[in-house]
Amino acid sequence: MISIIVTARNQATDLRSCLNAILDGADSDELEIIVACNGCGDETAQVARGFGPAVRVVEMPAASHAHALNVADRAASAFPRFYLQAGVVCHLSSIRRMAKHLSDGLALAIAPPFRIRADQSGGIVRGFYEIAQRLPSHQDGLHGSSMFGLSQEGKQRFPHFPPVVAIEEFIRVSLEPDQFVRLENTRSRVTPPNTFGELLAAETELIRGVDQLRALDPSLPVDLGTDDRRVLRGLFTRRPDLWLELGIYIFVRVLARLLASAAGKHAVDPWELLAQPTSDPPEAGDLVGELQEPG
């Protein structure tokens, strides 16, 4: 059996597409699906329950992605185990391939290559992702693949997910390069922000997520800069037809950096305030120590 945890916050429409893709063609005893609704004020939970006994729903009032994953984890029982956000569409055929890769012991963690379909978004959003999808950080998954899977041994390395935004990146940089695989014969699609405001909020959270990882453990090889800058310089030199999109990308990133820096001046991390875990999470040092122990 494959366990799948879907986190959702006010994403009723996205969740319906996400679950339809997962369940299409599934055998009756093949999947264990848990939807973790966190901070929802719409009909997201009702949409999940509309799929019947194939889907279990856990609800929590606070909006915290990490806390939602940890709560749903305690309700899950099967491996391999996949974690995705409701804005992801990943068909069962890709999930099966990734599950086999994990079950065969070929990796501890896995994720699919992803595509952001921004054709329905505003012009600024489309321009931003025209550049973002060409950058190494995007290809590594940092710009929001929003999905990863763990084998049972891999999950033992991460008994608790820390209260950070960039959880997939935390998984990736905490493992050896051959232990986290982006499986090329799989695919997923991610729903992008629709408006400039939503895009700016998402990029601000991404930058804050990287800052959180560096604070969690300065030794983690988190990099959202050097390789991207090299590619950006090359695009400026070779692709004058993309200068408008490059200007949009740089403007959004600079503004997001300023907003993230302003948010970081607060003494209390709002993500930790929102999480309100049912039991005390481990300290950052304990988490890092657990990662260094063999599974």
Topology:
Elements lengths: L1 E7 L3 H12 L7 E8 L5 H6 L5 E6 L4 H11 L5 E5 L2 E2 L2 H12 L5 E3 L2 E3 L6 H10 L3 H4 L7 E4 L1 H6 L9 H8 L5 E3 L5 E3 L5 H21 L9 H13 L4 H22 L5 H6 L8 H9 L3
Helix pairs in contact: 5-11, 9-11
Largest sheet: 7 strands, mixed
Helix vs. strand class: alpha/beta
> If you average the pLDDT, what whole number results?
82
β-strand percent reads 5-15%
Number of strands: 10
Description:
It contains 13 helices and ten strands. α2 (44-49) links the parallel β2 (31-38) and β3. The strands form two sheets. A seven-stranded mixed sheet has the order 3-2-1-4-8-6-9, sandwiched between helices. It has helices at residues 12-23, 44-49, 65-75, 92-103, 123-132, 136-139, 152-157, 167-174, 196-216, 226-238, 243-264, 270-275, 284-292, and strands spanning 2-8, 31-38, 55-60, 81-85, 88-89, 109-111, 114-116, 147-150, 180-182, 188-190. By secondary structure, it is an alpha/beta fold.
